[in-house]
Amino acid sequence: MRPIVQFNINFVVAHKLEAKPLIEHFHLKKFIKEPFQVFKNESGIRLIISGMGTLRARSAVEYMWQIDDGSFFKEGWINVGIAGHRTLDLGTCFLANKISSKETGEVYYPFLDWNTKNTEGLITVDRPEKSYVGDEAYDMEAAGFFKAASNFSETELISSIKVISDNKTSSIDNITEKLIENLMLKTIAHVEPVVSVLKKRLAILNKGLVLDRECLDMVKSIHLTVSQRNQFKSLCRRFDAMGREDELKFILNCSRITSDQLLKKLTEKLAKQAH
Predict the structure, then answer these.
(1) Mean pLDDT, range 267-271, rounded to an integer
(2) Same domain, yes or no, for 125 and 196?
C-alpha cells in the first residue's frame, strides 16, 4: 500500500490589498471570479478574498470547502491580515494564541508549537476598534474564520497571522493602500514556517486517512462496530508504521473471518513481532 498523499492549504484574507503579496509570493493564479475571488497554484496553496467581517470570513471558508465537495482529505487553513493594538509597533507580526469574539463571547485557542514565538491574543470586532482597550490585538475576521474552519479541520491545522497596522499613536485613519501592501510583505517570513509545519501535519494525517480507507475497503465484507473500526484502523496504522504493509495486505486479503477473529489475528501478529 502506497497512499497518495494530497492536501490543500487555504489562505483566507479580507481584502485584495492583503492578498496581493501572498498571491505574488506563492505564484497564485485566479481560477474563480464569483462569488469570491479564488486563486491557486500547482502545489496546493489556495487563497480566497472574503471581504470584511466575520460573516463574510465564515462564508468564504464554507465556500472553499464546497469547492472540493467536502474533500476526503484534511486541509490547512490560514487567516492573514492587518490588526490594531494599543502599544505594539506598526509592522509587528504575530500568531494568534487566543481568538475571542466580542459579539458572541466565544473563545478559540489555536494550536501552537511549544517553541512558537511572537504570539498575541486577538479580539474580533464588528467595526474598527479605535480605543484599543487591553493588551489584545483587534481584527474583524479571525473569530468567524476560526469557527468555520474548525468545522472542517482539526485545530492543529488552523492558524491566524496578523500584522499591526494601527495603534494609539498611529490610528486606523492613517492606513493607506501602500501601507497595507508593505505591512503584508512582512507577514511572508511568518507565513512560510506555518505553511511548512502544516504540510508536514497534513502529509501524516492524510496518509493515515488513505490507509484507513484502503484497509476498510479490503475487509468490507466483515461487519465492524464503531469501536471495532477504530481498533482496526489503529492496528493497521501500527503495521504501516513498522514497515509491514505487505504483511498487513496479505492478512486482510485472506480474512474470511469474523470481526473478532480479525482483530485478534492482527493483535497477535503485532505482538509476535514485538517479541
Answers:
(1) 82
(2) yes
State which of 150, 172, 206 marks the end of a domain.
206
The answer to whether position 236 is within a domain reads: yes
Is residue 273's pLDDT more than 80?
Answer: no
Containing domain of residue 22, as a range?
Answer: 9-206
The set of cell numbers assigned to 168 is 494609539
Q: In whole angstroms, what is the distance from residue 82 CA to residue 16 CA?
A: 12
Summarised one tens digit per residue, pLDDT across range 163-210 is: 999 999 999 999 999 999 999 999 999 999 999 999 888 887 777 767
Is 185 in the same domain as 229? no
* Spatial CB neighbours of 233, under 8 Å, sequence gap ≥ 6: 212, 215, 216
In whole angstroms, give the CA distance from residue 147 to residue 100: 11
Q: Residue 59: name the closest of 51, 70, 47, 71 by CA.
A: 51
DSSP state of 89: P
Q: Are 264 and 162 within one domain?
A: no
Residues 6 or more apart whose CB falls under 8 angstroms from that of 123 comprise 99, 100, 101, 102, 129, 134, 136, 137, 138, 139
**pLDDT reported for residue 203:** 81
Write down the pTM of the prediction: 0.80
Domain count of the chain?
2
